[in-house]
Structures are given as C-alpha cells and as structure tokens.
Recover the amino acids of this structure.
C-alpha cells in the first residue's frame, strides 16, 4: 500500500463532494493535473474505476460509491484520533475503566459527576467487579486495584490507602457474643472473602502490640463478591471485615456494629494500573490524575 494512501483518499473524497476536479484542486491548493494524477493512482492501486468522467459531468461508479463511503468514514476516524491526542484539544473518546465493587460504590460513583462535568466529551464504560481483570484481552484502559499488587507487566500508580473495619449485625452479636481481641475471632463465624483469581482467602490484619498480626476467623461461608459480603453481614450470617467506606453508612444506621475498636485494622493499598506510560492517551491520563486527586480528598474514608 502506498504511504500516501490517506492523501489520495482525501483528494478523492474532495473531488466527489465538490463534483469537480478544478474545484477540488482550488480547495486543496493543488494544480488540477496533480488531482487527476492522484485519482488515477488510487484507481490503479485499488484496481477499479472510481469515476465516470466527461467534459460536462462527473459521477461515481458503483465501486467508486462504496469506496467513497468507506474512505469518508476512515478519514473521519483518523481525524477523530488525531484530535483526541492533540494537546490543543480537550480529551475525548470512550474510556473503559474497571474497579472493585466496594470502591466503586463508596468513592468512584459519588464523585464521577465531577469528572463528567470536567470532561464532557469522554464517554465512560465502567465495569465493577471483584475479579482480576485482564486489561489487554478485555480492552480496558485502566484498572483500579485494592491490596498489594502481584508482579505485573503493567504500569501502576499508587494513589493511597483505604481504612478497613470489622463489623457484625446486632442479631449476630446477641447470639454469639462480642469478640474482645483478634484472638477471639477463632471462636466466631465470619463471612470470608476469597479471590476468584488466586482462590486465596483474605486474611484479617490488625496492629497489635506494635506488630501486624493476621487472623483468619472461623468461617461457614466464603464469597467472592463484596456486595454479597455486605448483604450477608447485614443478614447476621457472620462477621465481616471490609472497607470502612462501604460499612460506615450501616454502622451509622445501627444495622452493623463495629467491634475490635481497640485494634487498628491494617489499611489496604489502592493503585491504578494501565498498559503503557509512553503512549498513555489524554483521556486515560486525565482520569488517573483526577481519581488520584479525588482519592486524596477522601483519604480518611
């Protein structure tokens, strides 16, 4: 394919829309013979006749009409792509984000209207899940992750930490009692969270006597979804250890009671992953910067 194929297509589209070689030459600031030569080159490369030409009229062949429609779409896409990456243009396009459910409910969704007001030309496709997303195979632009990151070929930016809390429904505590130390958890039922990717059960970590300790409570229920985890805790099926931001509204309403308040739960790291730093598109860059700023404002959540 010729290196100037886009240029030839652009000249062809201009000739068709102005219905004149002379007018197209004037609009493109080219000599008329150069326009004629370009159309001939395009016909030779494609192996089809594009135009019926007489001294008085100009019309498309059937093949020419099809190529005109496709060339016009292709050129529009190219122009849109160039505008999307132009520093003089506001970020635009479709932004695909994946984020954990609890973080989506507690931080992302309440603030997303602000991002849309700042960047109205960016369309958002948001998937919220607690599974490990593959950015490349699923066409995701960036992923928000909770916890320590496993080895990854992707670029990561740490934006901060989120607080955790340990809670249970009042009905559960009335039946099974209140744990006074993390060691008491072994005698309790818990709704434990496990990673769908690694199948590992999340440990409950606390700061105790100047050290970080891990406890894995007794459990009669495992879930891989933070919404199900919360619903199970509210139903009194067991104790839960989860993001404070997700639990706080239910603590305030009395539907959940926080326990082990003398022991500080270890926070969880929050990071954003994206494929490539060198060719990071403006829409992804502004989202990452915006989310980091929002998270900094809400760091106490």
């Amino acid at each position: 394919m010729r290196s100037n194929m886009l240029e030839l297509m652009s000249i062809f589209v201009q000739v068709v829309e102005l219905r004149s070689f002379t007018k197209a030459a004037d609009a493109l600031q080219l000599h008329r013979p150069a326009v004629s030569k370009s159309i001939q080159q395009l016909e030779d490369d494609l192996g089809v006749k594009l135009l019926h030409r007489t001294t008085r009229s100009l019309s498309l062949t059937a093949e020419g009409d099809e190529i005109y429609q496709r060339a016009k779409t292709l050129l529009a896409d190219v122009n849109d792509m160039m505008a999307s990456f132009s520093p003089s243009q506001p970020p635009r396009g479709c932004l695909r984000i994946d984020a954990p459910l609890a973080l989506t409910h507690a931080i992302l969704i309440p603030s997303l209207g602000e991002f849309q007001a700042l960047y109205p030309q960016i369309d958002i496709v948001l998937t919220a899940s607690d599974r490990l997303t593959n950015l490349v195979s699923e066409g995701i632009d960036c992923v928000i992750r909770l916890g320590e990151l496993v080895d990854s070929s992707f670029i990561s930016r740490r934006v901060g930490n989120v607080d955790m809390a340990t809670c249970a429904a009042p009905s559960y505590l009335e039946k099974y009692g209140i744990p006074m130390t993390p060691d008491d958890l072994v005698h309790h039922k818990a709704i434990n969270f496990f990673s769908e990717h690694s199948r590992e059960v999340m440990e409950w970590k606390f700061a105790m006597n100047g050290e970080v300790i891990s406890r894995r409570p007794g459990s009669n229920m495992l879930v891989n979804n933070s919404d199900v985890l919360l619903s199970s805790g509210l139903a009194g099926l067991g104790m839960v250890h989860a993001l404070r931001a997700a639990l706080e509204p239910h603590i305030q309403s009395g539907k959940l009671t926080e326990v082990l308040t003398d022991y500080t739960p270890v926070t969880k790291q929050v990071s954003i992953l994206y494929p490539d730093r060198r060719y990071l598109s403006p829409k992804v860059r502004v989202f990452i910067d915006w989310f980091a700023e929002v998270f900094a404002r809400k760091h106490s959540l």
Summary: The mean pLDDT is 86. The two ends are 56 Å apart (CA to CA).
